Amino acid sequence: MGLKTTDNDETCSIASDISNTDTDRIIRSTFPSPSPPNSPFPATFSNMDNNNGSNTYSNSTTNNNTNKEDDPVSEKEDYSLLTHPAIVFASKRLSDSNYVSRFHTVNVFDFDQTLFQSPLPNPALWDPSFIGILTSWAYCGTGWWHNPGTLEMGPEIEASLWDGWWNEAIVAKVRESSEDPGCLTILLTGRNGPTFGQKLVSMVQSKALDFDLIVAKPTTVALLDPSPSSASKKVDKKAPASSKPVEKYLKVHTFNTKHDFLYNVLYEYPAIRTMHLWDDRPCQIAKFHQAGQEWLDKKMLDHFEITIVQEPMIYLDPQREIDLVLAMVEANNRQVDIEEQGGPFLVPGVGAVPRTRPELRDRKIWDPYETYVPQKRHRIEVTRVVRYTGVMFSEAVQRIMRDKLGGSHPQDRQYQQLQHYHDHHYNDNDVHDAKPWVDRPLVLRDQDLGKWVIPDDLHVTLCLGTGTPELLESIGGLGATVLVEVESVGELENRIWALKVKEMKMGVLSDNGEGGDGEQEGQDDDTREVRIVAPNGHLYFSLDALRAAYISRPSTAISLSSSPMSTPSTRTPSIQDQEAILSSSHGVGDIPLDLVDLDRLGHIVLKKVDTAPHITMAYDKLNGTRAMDSGKITQWESLTDADGHPYPYRLVFVGTVAEKMLLGMKARKTAAVTKAEVSLGNLIKSLTGDKTITGKELGEMVQAVKEEMEKLSVENRLANEERIMTIVHDLCDRYETKKLLSHHNVASASTMPMPTIAIQE
Asked: Where is the composition biased (Polar residues) (predicted)?
């Protein structure tokens, strides 16, 4: 799998006009803050006491409620790493001067998608725009990453001590580090400490991982103490239109918290000369690369290394995830009721910001500053959403596509597992050999694609969303059977590959030439034998053989007017309806994919005429590639077999015209917006943190954000700022990834000391 761009918390920051004086007025109160009265969201636990025996350290900040003017910080003030509010666990060994005197290396491990394969919202269940809402910090209740249910995976999994969810390669690195007396071993996560601290301690101890420190983000936002002159200032444009006093918060971003903490580590233990980080997020990796260079330049370190961790995603049990998300939506809507009745706004993760030690006063650790004014929540209605209309294939057909069409080579990591799978799951119907029928594009044949992303639903996209009546008529209507012939293979920039396909005409498949609707149907110069893969996973060598196999099956013909997918429902589905949709339809509405109706054939007609019909097979997410990038492939190669010879058969897969159904948010009716309310350019510059970005690059990135917003129906309004941030985050992650890898290639040829970047193998 490629590098993840998941927005699991507020990692990157947004520029704001907040002054340093505002920062000094942060109320450093005891965290966590209790939930508002009558809040539908659970209060976070009130302390971080870890009742785990003698090898623990309890930590919390003190409630002084003072500002810099009232209590100026003395330059002689004693700062200790072990009083840092981000610490949720510390070994008592750290109080032993003999123990810490041996440190020469600090090994720092991220938690989510690094040490532990924390689940994200499953893209097979939810519309992409709704996933952005779920993972945003302040849009759907507390959001995915502040919800304790995202780490509650069921009694069976927890009884197994989360077996299968740990990244065992990183577990081995943690154990190797903890056994080395010269290494300080730290778990450093962007998870909210008050919410997840005890859970994290419990999980790592169940795995018998011996960290010296477990560190989490102590707060997501910190309340700014209003200045005496604030009443005379102009009201913030983001402030809700109400009589309530306007509260202003400082957003605390994950990278800033980690950056500050690691600086404190280096000041606390100056004998440490080597730092090694394991992380998965490109935005953080790029910034840590810059921080590492700074530490090298300042002679605070002699060696700095980052290992990029990439592992396949694991998801919650579908029913468990649906229940969790629907509960989040219900809690959000109850919060809307509270606000409409004059109750308080919901601000998740309120806490204290670590006080900056004197040595870091001029380092601008918390720049750029971003303020947050609580926004009125909006009611969310979950409904069925058509992601795209296309030619879908049964699970049996998709399995054969993944296994037989360039899916695995002997150098790929999954080859041996795939061979074992074939030996135990295939019959003798000519598909039992793991050797692929059709090879991948030439430039990819010697590469290990073991971590590339393989789409969970191989299909031919005909149009995004619901097709127009004209398009549906031209493709044969929903439920029509389509004979899809694989024509060639293609790739783009060594980062994605696909199969180019075309519609196979009836006349060239029948043994006796019957079945065509005209002379054009029967004309074909290709005399190769035909191999037809049916929905049941069996091979047939002519259309007549396929027809004979399915003649006794009931017809799957569904008229356009009677199809439940052809007309939108005017009723918002109930929770029971939503659960039934996902459990019974498998994401393609009510169209069965395992039957064949040769009396009602559909056609491959694309809405976008400048794109070749194709099936995206795999892509390298590490390089910021997305599945939709396959539409940019223009160079195609003839099919060859695993030995490099021209493929001797015409390969046809039987598919069905259907709509990909997901759950998403019902769009709210809003007034037309004539002016953009969020500056995309400023947002991009702040998130990338790249002062050297050119005007041309910025313009291209702004245009890419606009195109993605249009696809997801996100208007440029302040109310949609969180969703826009999610889109920009994804774009900036891809930008930072490409820049990072390019910088690494240049650095590799340099003789100067540079931070090392490695990719976990």
From this structure: 11-21
